[in-house]
Amino acid sequence: MSVRIVISALALALLPLASSSLAQAQDSAEKAKAVTEENGKHLDADGNPTYKIENGTVDWYTFSGYRRYHSDCHVCHGPDGVGSSYAPALAETMKNMDYGTFLSIVAEGRKNVGGGKENVMPAFGDNKNVYCYMDDLYVYLRARAIGAAPRGRPPKKAEKPQAAKDHEASCMGG
Prior knowledge:
- By secondary structure, the protein is an alpha+beta fold.
- The chain folds into two domains: 1-31; 33-172, Cytochrome c-like domain (Cytochrome Bc1 Complex, Chain D, domain 2, Orthogonal Bundle).
- Helix content is 51%, strand content 14%.
- The strands form three sheets. A three-stranded antiparallel beta sheet has the order 1-2-3. It has a three-stranded mixed beta sheet with strand order 4-5-8. A two-stranded antiparallel sheet has the order 6-7.
- A hairpin with a 2-residue loop joins strand 6 (110-114) and strand 7.
- Helix 2 packs across helix 6 (134-145).
């Protein structure tokens, strides 16, 4: 059997998966749509934090999430959530992770053992530089997961809302 026939058969077999992934991405984008706003923070229909990007300008929380991700998370998970040989691509993982699970894993950590190797996500529940900004991290990674936020530093950001300043001062102890 020629290589060309094998590749063609494989491509045909994978075609339904590709259209399923596209439908899943569209469904995720619809679920992530901001429907309400409270003090500059955007929420989806279920009340979970989400992003708002208009005319290339990201909301403050998405920008803050980008900054926090690149100060504490990218070392293991790679730039822009694309993964590394050390830790998974969060831009992919977040496609199937709900808000509560994300908060739990970041705060408490996680250990996966399988295939002869062990992966450990340390707990960040005691790290204020992460813990105080978990919603921001979630929002940023959620936007990256469905392609709403491109790779790299967002070129334009909304002003920091007073609620974000107040939360930061309260959480960080300042």
